């Protein structure tokens, strides 16, 4: 895999410290698996390119990955969700009802944070400004109180970088399957020599069909519940 930018150029695209999150306290009742997941990642305290070897240091989160980390389904609330009356869940999730129920059942059998921990362990998590904006909007509109709290803490653990897609990815023709916003998100990971953690495999397949290789790590999708489920479980 070739890249158009050297490692020395990378930190020109990091936001200044005032744009980064503050300190995160992992003892805020956020849930054991959530806190354990964050503690697996390295945290950058400054924007100086010191001690980073390059492509092995970073992992790029797209919006689906951020949602999967903070979702109530991923944070011990799956059983509580399934115990809600069916009519209530159908009213809340409408056409996504079966999708959400399947996620909750999958989570009980195979918790997603264990998979994500293996992917992010020892890495510096990065998100581009487009992902930051989309994630904040989704959390504001669809997140429950606990999901919003976890989102606030997660963002404090990540390095926010400018939209800086690699030339090779942004140069692909923009189509319905190769949407511009996805080229920016995955292209920024490509620029940073980082795998993108994602559930958006439709885009990954579309890129592969062009003959281009793309460094990605797939995760199972999770949805925001928008529900204030039991704090003891979440």
Task: Describe the fold and architecture.
Residues 59-226 form the DUF1308 domain. It comes from Durio zibethinus. This is UPF0415 protein C7orf25 homolog. The chain is an alpha/beta fold. The protein has one domain (7-17, 29-45, 55-218): 3-Layer(aba) Sandwich (Rossmann fold). It is built from twelve helices and five strands. Helix 12 (201-208) links the parallel strand 4 and strand 5. Helix 2 packs parallel to helix 7 (112-120), helix 3 crosses helix 9 and helix 8 (129-142) runs antiparallel to helix 9 (145-155).
Question: Keywords for this structure?
Answer:
disordered N terminus, 234 residues, 12 helices, 5 strands
- Total DSSP helices: 12
CATH top-level class: Alpha Beta
As a percent range, the share of helical residues equals 40-55%
Oligomer: single chain
The pLDDT mean sits at: 87
Rg, Å, rounded: 18 Å
Number of domains: 1
Instruction: Fill in the CATH topology.
Output: Rossmann fold
| CATH evolutionary superfamily | 5'-nuclease
Order of helices and strands: HHEHHHHHEHHEHHEHE
Low-pLDDT stretches: 1-8, 47-51
Morphology call? globular
Largest sheet geometry:
5 strands, parallel
Count all strands and give the number. 5
CA-CA gap between termini: 41 Å
Quickly give the structural class. Answer: alpha/beta
Proportion of residues in extended strands: 5-15%
Protein name: UPF0415 protein C7orf25 homolog
InterPro entries: DUF1308
Organism: Durio zibethinus (Durian)
């Amino acid at each position: 895999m070739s890249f158009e930018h050297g490692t020395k150029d990378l930190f020109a695209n990091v936001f200044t410290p005032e744009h980064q999150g503050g300190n995160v306290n992992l003892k805020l009742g956020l849930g054991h698996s959530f806190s354990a997941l964050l503690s697996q990642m390295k945290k950058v305290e400054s924007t100086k390119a010191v001690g980073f070897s390059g492509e092995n240091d970073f992992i790029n989160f797209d919006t689906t990955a951020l949602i999967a980390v903070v979702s109530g389904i991923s944070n011990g609330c799956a059983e509580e969700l399934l115990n809600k009356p069916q009519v209530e869940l159908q009213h809340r999730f409408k056409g996504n009802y079966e999708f959400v129920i399947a996620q909750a059942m999958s989570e009980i059998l195979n918790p997603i944070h264990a998979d994500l921990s293996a992917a992010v362990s020892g890495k510096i998590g990065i998100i581009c400004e487009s992902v930051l904006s989309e994630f904040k909007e989704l959390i504001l509109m669809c997140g429950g109180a606990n999901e919003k709290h976890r989102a606030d803490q997660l963002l404090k653990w990540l390095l926010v970088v400018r939209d800086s897609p690699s030339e090779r990815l942004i140069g692909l023709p923009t189509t319905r399957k190769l949407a511009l916003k996805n080229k920016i998100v995955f292209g920024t990971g490509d620029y940073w020599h980082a795998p993108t953690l994602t559930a958006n495999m439709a885009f990954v397949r579309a890129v592969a069909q062009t003959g281009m290789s793309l460094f990605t790590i797939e995760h199972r999708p999770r949805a925001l519940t928008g529900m204030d489920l039991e704090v003891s479980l979440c």
